[in-house]
Amino acid sequence: MDRILLKNASAVVTCDPADHVYYDCDILIEGPKILCIGKNLDAKKQDTPGNRSRAADTQIINARGKFVYPGLINTHHHFFQTFVRNLTAIDYPNLMVMDWIEKIYQIFQIIDSKVIYYSTLTAFADLIKHGCTCAFDHQYCYTKKTGKEPVDRQMEAAELLGIRYHAGRGANTLSISEGSSIPDNMLETTEEFLVDCDRLIGKYHDPRPYSMRQIVMAPCQPLNCRPETFRETVRMARDKKVRMHTHLGEGENEGMLARYGKRTMDWCQELGFIGPDVWYAHDWEVLPEEYQVLAGTGTGISHCPAPAVLGGFPILNLKELDQAGVLVSLGCDGSATNDSSNLLDSLRMAYLMQAYHAKKRNGCVSAYDMLKIATVNGAKTLGRTDLGSLEPEKGADLFLIDTENLELSGALHDPKNLLARVGQTGPVWMTMINGKIVYQDGVLKGVDEKRLAAEGEAVCSRVIRANSSAFSNL
């Protein structure tokens, strides 16, 4: 395996348990993992006894003037929605969530397999360029035109760009006539869902260290699925040893009380859809008395700041959740409620949201705390003990920012807090995933970005823009 030596990095923010920051030091990487971090590293001297020297195979990268961070980990997204960004026919800020869902599904039902592929490439490119190295996507858009291919097409896109991908195989199994918001041509049966989950787990799920792809069983949301969909998900997921995910606490509790006489978390707990192998998206309706349930069961929350702000919804109290022992990670959410796949932007927004309430509450999480939510906690949420921090034997997932730019002059006092506090939300200088440079100095490696962008635009025009007149009547 070839080696990469990052030389003379101005700062390395490790996010390790001791919160080390190393200055003017090197990182030696071999294959998918970090070998060591220290000053004046010599590739020859790091060879293990009995092995020939790998110095001749070592690529040396001058990291002077660069700050190095662990790769960001995105724990909630909907890649298929990137082609409805900036679509004025659906004005999310002026709609309640359930009303928005009812309208947006009328657009989603026309999506085909090519939209899935190119919208996924679009989201991945945005994530990679802004320091994200491992991404989870909640793919619940299965139409007559997509067939059962969406996750397969997403895996193709992930492999092309070189990003770690955890695919959430979603499903909607309750019809409109029974009280859901799902058009008939986007419905699946629970059995269809389970059969395809079994296929995907067998084909793609890799639980080994440094794995590049895994599968998560992720029914879309309780209001749009049958109880047996969740019950059978729990049975299969724990048998196959894969994780579980769903939307929860994002405006559906009133409907759940009317339908089942209980709040959504109680409903999930009754069905077994709770525990250290489960995390929920959003949960801005979570009650203080439910904190202990989440903490006691080890269930996580993916905090997605953009849709909460855009929709005017309650802001999670991250300080109190942390003090209660609840695992919180960071997600972009779908582009229909974010218009962005930039996790650095979500990091900044989440920090400012907490700061806004700090004086009224019990203090604010620090900008560095937010970084650890987006790295260490993201890895824990996905069950990745091999990711989330920069340490020997951890996966070589990291990004570098160039600090020798005028706009950062005078702001380099504290590398740990820089990203969220100063608002470093633009493209990074370099992103490395699994020991491979996938993006550097404005260039995605190994692909013709202009060609892919043109192809994606053509698909968007054919499927979305060609039907835009129908959207205006929604």
UniProtKB/TrEMBL annotation:
Range of residues in the leader sequence: none
Residues of the Amidohydrolase-related domain: 67-438
UniProt keyword Transit peptide present: no
InterPro entries: Amidohydro-rel (IPR006680), Metal-dep_hydrolase_composite (IPR011059), Metal_Hydrolase (IPR032466), MTA/SAH_deaminase (IPR050287)
Assigned keywords, A-Z: Hydrolase
GO molecular function: hydrolase activity, acting on carbon-nitrogen (but not peptide) bonds
Database matches in PANTHER family: AMIDOHYDROLASE-RELATED DOMAIN-CONTAINING PROTEIN, AMINOHYDROLASE SSNA-RELATED
Protein name: Amidohydrolase
Organism the protein comes from: Diplocloster agilis
